[in-house]
Design brief:
This protein folds into three domains: 100 residues, Ribosomal Protein S5, domain 2 (2-Layer Sandwich), CATH 3.30.230; 90 residues, 3-Layer(aba) Sandwich (Rossmann fold), CATH 3.40.50.11260; 133 residues, Four Helix Bundle (Hemerythrin (Met), subunit A), CATH 1.20.120. It has 342 residues and is of the alpha/beta class. The chain contains 14 helices and eleven strands.
Length: 342
């Protein structure tokens, strides 16, 4: 790991290089000089870790660096964009590491979003709030393996259809960082792939009536899907997210996401197996076809295919990929074979 920290002088006398006690870890990219008249000339690294004067200097320097970054972001956005591409992932660490300064760090964050067609991280939280719809109370975001996958996530189809902006995240640190955030200027952060979407006033009476009518018609289908999938899911329910895809998996608010579980497993830590909800788009042709399947074995096989496709879409891994391919091939043969010829 590269050396970090500031050059320390006491009363203009050089004391040491890389005095890391004067800035928090998430500002390790900062280089500079500290000249203090209050520290003793014989100060050591051990004393620096325990000195109240050092803590005061650290607090002042941290605030100054964050203020300089805020000024750069406001006055020279192109230069700040260059800075963010280089050090943005490091600065994000401060959200969890430095709670007292979290309020100063939040405006410095930059995101890709569905507002633009490219994946440049150019959107600030202030930009997002300025574009929020009337009645919107949540800052929506989605996390995926890549920004392209986040933009194409089934979990945000209905949000995009409604014209609601969604922040797109794909760095390894993002699961951890977003888990530390609750609100920004009174608006709560909301992972679009977890729990309910919490549309609130954005959902009209017509939306609720349509949902109730579809739910009444599809209760039997949803029960058949749940019975076919068993313990793989906690529930099959009518989707409030989907407009183009047949199904998607939805985690509970406190479930560990698949990506984080793989990271922890690779590090040798045991993780609980999450059982997601399966949200179903009953208007999709594939789901309408599924509803018409009367043979129990064929229904179970197709329901499992729908589940596995939803799992793959969110970046999950199949327990048995060859079996999935065989199931898919059997379905394709049935669809390609004229009825009555087999």
């Amino acid at each position: 790991e590269a050396a970090r920290g500031l050059k320390l002088y006491v009363r203009r006398v050089f004391i040491m290089d890389d005095a890391e006690q004067f800035l928090p870890l998430y500002l390790r990219f900062v280089k500079g000089v500290v000249d203090s008249s209050d520290l003793p000339l014989n100060v050591s690294r051990e004393l620096l870790q325990q000195d109240a004067e050092v803590e005061a200097i650290r607090g002042g320097l941290t605030k100054r660096v964050l203020d300089l970054l805020a000024r750069l972001a406001k006055d020279e956005p192109q230069k700040y964009a260059t800075f963010w591409k280089e050090f943005g992932a490091v600065l994000k660490e401060g959200i969890a590491q430095d709670l007292p300064n979290q309020g100063a760090i939040l405006p410095l964050l930059r995101f890709a979003s569905t507002h633009a067609s490219d994946n440049e991280p150019s959107v600030s939280l202030g930009d997002y709030l300025a574009r929020m719809k009337s009645g919107q109370e949540r800052i929506y975001y989605v996390i995926a393996e890549t920004l392209e996958a986040a933009r194409a996530s089934p979990a945000i189809e209905r949000l995009r259809e409604r014209g609601l902006e969604v922040l797109l995240l794909a760095e390894r640190i993002d699961e951890w960082v977003m888990g530390q955030l609750e609100t920004y200027e009174g608006k709560r952060f909301k992972d679009a792939a977890r729990g309910d979407l919490e549309l609130g006033a954005l959902a009209s009476d017509a939306d609720r009536q349509q949902h109730d009518a579809q739910l009444k018609e599809s209760k039997g289908l949803l029960k058949r899907i749940k019975d076919a999938l068993g313990e793989r899911i906690t529930e099959a329910r009518l989707s409030e997210r989907l407009s183009e895809s047949p199904a998607c998996l939805v985690l509970g608010e406190h479930d560990l996401p698949e990506r984080m579980r793989r990271i922890l497993t690779a590090a040798g830590q045991k993780t609980p197996q999450a059982r997601p909800l399966l949200e179903v788009n009953v208007a999709h042709p594939l789901i309408r076809y599924l509803e018409g399947v009367t043979d129990p074995a064929q229904f179970a096989e197709l329901a499992q295919l729908v589940y596995e496709q939803a799992l793959l879409t969110e970046g999950g891994q199949l327990a048995n990929a060859p079996e999935y391919v065989q199931r898919l091939n059997r379905l394709l043969v049935r669809l390609a074979t004229p009825q009555g010829s087999v």
